[in-house]
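anyone seen this seq b4? input:
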Amino acid sequence: MSTITKIETFIGGRLCVVRVTTDDGLVGYGQTAPSEPEITEQVLHRLVARHFLGRDPWELAALVDETMRAEYKYLGGFLFRAISGIDTAIWDLQGRATGQPVYKLLGGAVQDRVPVYASSMSRELPVDEEVSRIAEAVEKYGLRCAKVKVGIRNGRDAELWEGRTAALVPAMRKRFGADFWLSADANGAYSPGGAVQVGRKLEEYGVFHLEEPNPCWELDNMKYVADHLDLPIGAGEQEWSLEIIRRMIAERLVDVIQPDVCYVGGMTRARQVAQLADLNGIPCTPHSSGHSLIKIFTAHLVMASPACTQFQEWSVESSGASEVYSPIPPVKDGYITLDDTPGWGVEILPSFLERATRQVTGLE
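predicted toks r here
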């Protein structure tokens, strides 16, 4: 039986990479959620690592659940961000030990490739510049779908400048044509009434999905918006509570559930969300902004999950992923493809580990 003997973190920039090692030499790499990595790192070493050290990595689901229950006084985003780092490292470890890619450990591929969309993170660019840079990505990668930002993040119905959304969405439709799939992300920008008003305008231009129309914690308002629009409403990226996610799905507060592997607590818990979506007959479209290892985790989840039927997020912003891991799956004809390389199918670059700040918790 393998025993986990060492858990290491490596912080470089906004990323915290995690390495798990066992007494018989098994190794796996994972990652916590990007942003504020120093806080997550401290939570990982002070609260989370102790529940995994000296334990069998093949009992992963039990260990994740045990950790949550033991640290119930500290339930919240940073706890589950920390759990995600160890969880994803152990999935990689299991894959390397068995010679299998993670998507096969999850049950096997239900599709042979993953369709992706051009995801913009910008609200600041003039409309013509925003449309042009999305067009560059669409042409370069053969994409058939794009998502733009509308409103101001948790902005109480505000716009960065008057008429931005009213100009951007028609400009996107005009540039890409009627057959192009178009989505919008409000990041909690609207009140219930404001979201319905904007949503009806989006419906006129054939937008197929509106993400987080109101602040993510306003569950009743979420349902109000979903009930008043034909436009499918998605949310869930910020959520770490599986109970709230269960409510969002079971009570039809949303039409699309969007967990983030590294926010919800790792692949073990993200897989539960995808399975719950499948059982309830709604799409699961994970949140996956940026180009860190979250891209890889999400691709494996999507490959193995019947509920993940829609286009998946692929950021058009500048990528620093080439400085962290290799290889980066290429986008071709609007799809990414995973091979059968064990674990996540990538290697953390030695150059990243060498320049990163390292912290370790291990058995004496």
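Residues 105-336 form a domain with the TIM Barrel fold (CATH 3.20.20.120). The chain is about 40% helix and 20% strand. kinda curious what u guys think
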